[in-house]
Amino acid sequence: MEIFNKAGIMVTSTLVMVGMLIACQVKEEVQPPAPVVEAVAKKLAEHGGAAAERRMREWAEQGSPVAARELGLLYSQDAAKHQEAMRLLEKAALAGDAVSVDYLSTRYRSSATVAKADGTQSWPLFVQLNNQHHTK
């Protein structure tokens, strides 16, 4: 009987430790490397999925410019999410993401202006970003 109690205690303590480890990993706000974000974005674009979109949004909110860019590019394909797409792309561009700067500058050249995410003003975003990069 004593052996079963020891085994039960060991199993229980192991399960508690695994649960604590999982909880700690969930709370970590570590941004994944760019290739991981891009792989998740590719799967999201191909197959969809609320979980992948939620993960990308979390990474973007944590400050990952790559996640903001990829989510913005994905949202730019949906007219209903255009404002959110521009907000995410602006956030990534201002964080120094070159792909976002290039995308927004291309949009600027094709339409003459890029509307800010709140829709209050149109302004040449790529000009301001290029000036920032050249003055450093």
Give a verbal description of the structure.
The protein is mainly alpha-helical and 136 residues long. Helices cover 74% and strands 3% of the residues. It is built from 7 helices and 2 strands, in the order ααααααββα. The chain is elongated and about 80 Å long. The model has no long low-confidence stretch (mean pLDDT 77).
Structure summary:
With 136 residues, this protein is an all-alpha fold. 74% of the residues lie in helices and 3% in strands.
Helix content: over 70%
Radius of gyration computed on alpha carbons: 22 Å
Residue fraction in strands = under 5%
Mean pLDDT: 77
Terminal-residue CA separation? 73 Å
Strand order of the largest sheet: 1-2
The total number of structural domains is 1
Silhouette: elongated
User: H/E order of the elements?
Assistant: HHHHHHEEH
Number of helices: 7
Structural category? mainly alpha
SSE topology:
Layout lengths: L1 H26 L6 H14 L2 H12 L3 H11 L6 H13 L3 H14 L2 E2 L6 E2 L1 H11 L1
Antiparallel strand pairs: 1-2
Which key terms come to mind for this protein?
two-stranded antiparallel ribbon
